[in-house]
């Protein structure tokens, strides 16, 4: 699976999955269209019930899809042991229900976004084996 989107939006893109390329299109009005391995799958309703996304150890690369950060009801997000590069988007601060984030063992760099200080329920954070720079943002 590649990513999700925000309400009343349509997004698409490509993620590299090992030697394969995943093309995806997401349209949200409580619907996700996923195109993988030449098949189109449609998921309707109940996206707001998603509490956990685990895409760890899938050899995914590219940047972290902004669309996944629109799943504001998530409590757990695991994107570890892939080859994602770039930064953690500031939109992560909108995921107020997050209790656990694991993005370890990727190629992430840049600064840790200040918006992560908005995650007051966060109990577990794994950013190890990445190339972050700067200071860890301080919350209240």
CATH class: Alpha Beta
Spatially, the strands of the biggest sheet line up as 4-3-2-1-6-8-10-12
The assigned structural class equals mainly beta
Structurally, how many domains make up the residues? 1
Q: Write out the CATH superfamily name.
A: Ribonuclease Inhibitor
The topology string of helices and strands comes to EEEEEEEEEEEE
Shape: globular
Give the N-to-C terminal Cα separation. Answer: 35 Å
Strand content: 35-45%
Rg of Cα set: 15 Å
At CATH level 2, the architecture is Alpha-Beta Horseshoe
Low-confidence stretches: 1-8
* Portion of residues within helices: under 10%
What name is given to the CATH topology? Leucine-rich repeat, LRR (right-handed beta-alpha superhelix)
Q: Tell me about the biggest sheet? A: 8 strands, mixed
Tell me the total number of β-strands: 12
Query: Roughly what is the average pLDDT, rounded to an integer?
Result: 79
- What's the tally of helices? 0
What would your notes on this structure say?
The structure is a single chain. With 140 residues, the protein is mostly beta strands. It has one domain (9-132): Ribonuclease Inhibitor (Leucine-rich repeat, LRR (right-handed beta-alpha superhelix), Alpha-Beta Horseshoe), CATH 3.80.10.10. Helices cover 0% and strands 41% of the residues. The protein is built from no helices and twelve strands. The chain has strands at 9-17, 20-28, 31-36, 39-44, 52-54, 60-63, 76-78, 83-86, 100-102, 107-111, 124-126, 131-133. Strands 4-3-2-1-6-8-10-12 form an eight-stranded mixed beta sheet, with no helix packed on it. A hairpin with a 2-residue loop joins strand 1 and strand 2 (20-28). The N and C termini lie far apart (35 Å). 24% of the residues are buried. Residues 1-8 have low confidence and may be disordered.
């Amino acid at each position: 699976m590649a990513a999700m989107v925000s309400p009343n939006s349509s997004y698409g893109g490509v993620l590299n999955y090992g030697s394969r390329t995943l093309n995806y299109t997401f349209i949200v009005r409580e619907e996700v269209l996923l195109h993988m391995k030449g098949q189109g799958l449609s998921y309707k309703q109940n996206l707001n019930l998603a509490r956990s996304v685990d895409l760890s150890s899938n050899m995914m690369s590219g940047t972290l899809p902004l669309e996944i950060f629109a799943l504001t009801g998530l409590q757990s997000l695991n994107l570890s042991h892939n080859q994602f590069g770039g930064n953690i988007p500031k939109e992560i601060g909108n995921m107020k229900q997050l209790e656990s984030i694991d993005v370890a063992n990727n190629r992430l760099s840049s600064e840790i976004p200040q918006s992560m200080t908005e995650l007051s329920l966060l109990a577990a954070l794994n950013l190890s084996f990445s190339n972050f720079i700067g200071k860890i943002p301080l919350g209240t």
